[in-house]
Structures are given as C-alpha cells and as structure tokens.
Amino acid sequence: MKLLRKIALLVLVELCFVTARAQVVATEAWARPSDPGERSAPVYMQLLSPKDTKLISARSSSAEAVEVHGAAQDKGGKTMHPVVDLQLHADKTLEFKPEGYHLMLVDVKKPIRAGFEVQITLIFQSADGAREVVYVHAPVSLTKPK
What we know:
Largest sheet: 6 strands, antiparallel
Strand content: over 45%
Order of helices and strands: HEEEEEEEEEE
Distance between the termini: 53 Å
Number of domains: 1
Radius of gyration: 18 Å
CATH superfamily: PCu(A)C copper chaperone
Number of strands: 10
CATH topology: Immunoglobulin-like
Oligomer: single chain
Low-confidence stretches: 8-21
C-alpha cells in the first residue's frame, strides 16, 4: 500500500510539472491610459511559450472587446490592422510594443487611468486543439514600468 501511495504521489508531481511547463507566460504587461474622449487603450507585454501555439481570443471586464493589432508602415505612415490567431513560436519571445503587435481595449467601459490595473484573459490554442487560459494583470502607466 505504501508503494502505491509513493507511485501515485510521483505521478501527481510529474503531472504538475508537465502542466507547469506547458503554460504560456506573460511578462512585463502594462497598459497606456486612454486619452480623454477616446474609447480605446493599448496594452503591451511579452509572451513566451515552450511550444508552438496561437493566441485565439482575449477579453477584459474593462472593455467591450479586446483585439490583437499589428502595426505596419506604408506610404501614408503607420497603420494598424487586426490580427487573427497570432502565432507564438516555441521558446521565442513575442513582444507586444507600441510600434508592433499590441492588444487594444475597445469601447472601454470607463476611462483607463494611470495608477490603476487592467485585467485581461488570453486564450491560446495549440496545434492539437488544447486550449490554455492565461490571466494578465497590466498596470496602467504613461510609460513602460521599470
């Protein structure tokens, strides 16, 4: 009986370790305050995954919608465009930054102000169809917190 308990404990520990390794990690998250009269605010962070996966959805209680945007330079200047199913490559950090990919809080429910925090839920899906939910807490600041 003791041997069975030890084996069960070892299996449980291994499952916890495997689950921990499979998670996407979001770091250095922060949001810019919404401008007066604006109904949107950008959010930046770094994402790292140990395996290929894609960001398929995002939501926040602070906004009606959360969209993934990409920024590109064209003849008329910088343009933003929505991105669907943003791919993360295994062990490569994907940085959300002002001149690149970022999340956009759309139709914010109340002004996003410096000194507060925005909570965001990210949903990822791997090639085998497994989904993973990551919760992000982004402090609101005029510049990237140090």
